[in-house]
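User: Teach me something about this protein's shape.
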Amino acid sequence: MSTLSFASPRVSVSLSSSISRLNIFSSSISRSCYSVSFRSGERRSACPCVSYSLKVKAMAKLVQNMESTEKTVVAASSTQDDDCKTNKEGNHSRTFLNALTEHELLSGIRKEAEAGTLPSNLAAGMEELYQNYKNAVVQSGSPKADEIVLSNMAVTFDRVLLDMEDPFNFSPYHKAMREPFDYYMFGQNYIRPLVDFKNSYVGNVSLFYQMEEKLQQGHNIVLISNHQTEADPAIISLLLESTNPYIAENMIYVAGDRVLTDPLCKPFSMGRNLICVYSKKHMLDIPELTEMKRKANTRSLKEMALLLRGGSQVVWIAPSGGRDRPDPHTEEWYPVSFYFPFLQEKENFVCTFWCSITYISLALLCYDIMPPPPQVEKEIGEKRAISFHGTGLSVAPEINFMDIVAACGNPEEAKEAYTHALYNTVTEQYNVLKSAILGNQGLDASIPSVSLSQPWN
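Assistant: First, the predicted structure itself:
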């Protein structure tokens, strides 16, 4: 029996390595039991059951080979990678970190643009971002607004410049970078001043504790959610950090390629655990790259299968394939309908490796913080409007798939009905958050199925 410990500011995760035998197709395989120690210090050992089908037996062997190869590569390169990261930081220009005033910071943008380090369009976008962020933080009424703006924007511009000097490439599964620079806390500190916590709410916070229980037992949680802004991951983490820091820090987000390539967005993405995919909305933007994108998505699904096979994972997915947009006629915001095949494809692939998945619907309301462009854009480099505003997050109890199956005529019809049921629960929760935040009803907007609270108070 061996124990490995991984420490973070609030969480420790321990993996107790033991062996269990599973008789599959007259052969045996070994796998590890996992126990996760949450903030409460409780720890439970779990060996969830794994099942395979004959048609994926060859794929299972391939995945095992991938695991073995990955471990060897990581062991051989970890020291080299750490040295490389340290060297990048040490040799990096300090133009923005040395700025003591707004004038020096903005002059630094022009200096780096003239030196050719920053493309002119990016430099213009950085200046625009600075002004928009400044206006939003000042709107909060914080007496330290100017200090907060200068500090956060200096670090943001520094990270953008570093990536221009030495671009970072995301792997299909990207683990949040916490050292030597903590990109996770960087993102939290940047978005925090934009959240009006007095007018923000969490729905059914007790269900997050139940989710932690399931994670401790080795189950996987997949959160089926609407998607509003590039800041969604930070909003989720900020609203949960006081009650459920493990979920806040360890959630894995299925992310589209745009947040991995936009220079002003990449540094924030580097601080999140990501499964990197190409969105269906941009799959055909460049026809000659369509097949490459599909193959890349398949590799990403394999990575997700490996993670879920290990158990105790919490994954966020937006089946709409993109951010919510307002109705063009009423200008009312609402969750975009879920794309049924999106869920079906992932379930068909992942469940061949791992069956212990609990699907939970999650609703987000935070579009005012950083609304997307009115229309879906093909080009990278969108304008970023920013404001100080209340936000909301809510989860609903699990919808039993078998109950849906019982009411349907066939499995395919049941899966589609299940997708609609998940969407309907997201919409119901969204409307409650909307009444609380935009309708100024506050906690009185709660209904029997959605109990609102402000756990940070």
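Now, about its shape. The chain has three domains: 2-89, 93-165, 193-453. The CA atoms of residues 377 and 390 lie 26 Å apart. If you'd like, I can walk through any region in more detail.
User: That's plenty for now, thanks!
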